[in-house]
């Protein structure tokens, strides 16, 4: 992930010095309904693994003015931004990276200094980095093996847009299938990305017949909540996914959903059909690692990453035991 740190300096110089790790800098998570977020657990572990005195706190709000107020504090080193603030809060930042601009959503901000010493708050999207890094950790050869083959994204929200961007930019698929319960969301995504990335190839899998006819995607990224389909669009989308997963050829499936359990129905079905699978908690950890690299400006050691993965696994096990 050193590429994202190197690119971050195009927006300004580092705000840190040799004693910054011992200073109590603060990072924040802004979003609605974030009481169950696992990000604080992960960031606390990662900060400790880097021997910093930094902290990470939740701010449950959709108030952009409160976000701006936190940015003005000199001890604010960065932020995580989650739903429903990923589009609106980006307006309060000084610059947006290419990823954030093309995806149309911001989930991370970090600080760099202008030539005159002013603090600049830069918005980026590390969801796409988390997807990329998780895939490469599991399948290092995916960049070459996926090239020129189809890929697939399930969903039509912000996470789906991050997945489409990550697949197209780093894995060079021939085209990306989209399966989703609502056609208008897919239409909006297709229109948006054809404007932002003119050469992108997107195909809506909107019938079971189409799903049966297309080649097997080499990589699938799921982004939808794990609940039983009830509405007609949900039932059709589930049927399309089942058809794709039952094809003779198999590939890699990443399901970004991890609540209430990382072992989602989609993941279980893919496992039963012989697919290589990755849980959403793995992606979450890699997203947090990317954020930490931008804030602390250091590559994280694998010990800290393994501790974070172990902690999130244990937390999930405890939550399931309570159900």
Layout of helices and strands:
Blueprint: H1 2-8, E1 26-31, H2 39-49, E2 55-60, H3 64-72, E3 76-81, E4 95-96, H4 98-103, E5 108-113, E6 119-124, H5 127-138, H6 142-145, E7 151-154, H7 158-171, E8 176-179, H8 183-196, E9 202-204, H9 208-213, E10 219-222, H10 232-245, E11 252-255, H11 265-272, E12 276-278, H12 280-296, H13 302-322
Parallel strand pairs: 1-2, 1-3, 4-6, 7-8, 7-10, 8-9, 10-11, 11-12
Antiparallel strand pairs: 3-5, 5-6
Helix pairs in contact: 2-12, 2-13, 5-7, 5-12, 12-13
Task: Characterise the protein shown here.
- The protein has two domains: 165 residues, Leucine Dehydrogenase, chain A, domain 1 (Rossmann fold, 3-Layer(aba) Sandwich), CATH 3.40.50; 150 residues, NAD(P)-binding Rossmann-like Domain (Rossmann fold, 3-Layer(aba) Sandwich), CATH 3.40.50.
- The protein has 323 residues and is α/β, with parallel strands linked by helices.
- Helix 2 crosses helix 12, helix 5 crosses helix 7 and helix 5 packs across helix 12.
- It contains 13 helices and twelve strands.
- It has a six-stranded mixed β-sheet with strand order 2-1-3-5-6-4, sandwiched between helices. Strands 9-8-7-10-11-12 form a six-stranded parallel β-sheet, sandwiched between helices.
- It comes from Paecilomyces lecythidis.
- This is Shikimate dehydrogenase substrate binding N-terminal domain-containing protein.
